[in-house]
Structures are given as structure tokens and as C-alpha cells.
């Protein structure tokens, strides 16, 4: 059976601490990215549902990253803003 030397044990403990702090530092950006992706997906779903209903009135909003994030972040006021801008610009 191999002997564990003190240097090996200290190196393993140091590696565990380094891994812990590395994961802790990366958790906040990962959480932010996940929130942005979920907000965009929610906005895209809202726009798609609106396009199904708005198709009866010839009102359609294009689904892209900017509009999906805008509607996802602002909700129905953002959707109303997009419809107003579309009507204003023709």
C-alpha cells in the first residue's frame, strides 16, 4: 500500500480550496447568464403567443434576441411598446 506523504496531502487540500473558490467566482456570472437566457426564452414565448392571436388582426412582431429580451424583461408594457413602434414606423 502506497504511503501518503505530507506534501501530497497539503497539495490535495490546496487543490480542493482552489477549486471551491474558482467555482464560487464562476457562480455569479453563470447565474446571470442563466437569468438572461430564461428571460429571453420567456419573451420569445410571449411574442409567439401574441403572433398567434395578433395574426387575426394582421399584427406580427418579429422574434429576435432584442425583441425577446425586451419583452421578457418588460413584460406586457414591452410588447405594447413594440406594437406601438411598429405601427408608428409603418
Would you give an account of this structure?
This protein has about 90 residues and is an all-alpha fold. The N and C termini lie far apart (about 80 Å). The mean pLDDT is about 90.
C-alpha geometry: rod-shaped
- Gyration radius, rounded: 24 Å
The low-pLDDT segments are none
Helix content: over 70%
Write down the domain tally: 1
Report mean pLDDT, rounded to a whole number.
92
Q: N-to-C terminal Cα separation, in Å?
A: 80 Å
The chain-level structural class is mainly alpha
Q: Please summarize the sheet with the most strands.
A: none
Q: How many extended strands? A: 0
Total number of helical segments? 3
Strand content: under 5%
Run of helices and strands: HHH
For the structure shown, list the relevant keywords:
rod-shaped, 3 helices, single chain, about 90 residues, mainly alpha
Record the SSE blueprint.
Elements: H1 6-54, H2 65-74, H3 76-89
